[in-house]
Please model this.
Amino acid sequence: MPNITIYTKSTCSYCHAAKHLLREKQVSFTEISVDGDAQGVRAMSARAQGRTSVPQIFFDETHIGGCDDLYALEQAGNLDKLLSAGSDK
Model:
């Protein structure tokens, strides 16, 4: 299973929805809140090809995107495949 990192803000409904889906999948993730953290937003943006919106989601070093991207992976049937990648290590 990849190491999952999600950059969030506490008032972001998309952040809550993305975390809800990950919890439904029973996967652990590291949440990095960028509430009022300009340096944190810059670090997130550097990882996320310039994106400054939240959430920004990473599986290991692979940028998944935001909430809509995560749900699109689920709709396409690809999220479980990505979550199980490397589970045989």
In short: The radius of gyration is 13 Å. The domain at 4-84 is CATH 3.40.30.10 (Glutaredoxin). The chain has a mean pLDDT of 95. DSSP finds four helices and four strands in the chain.
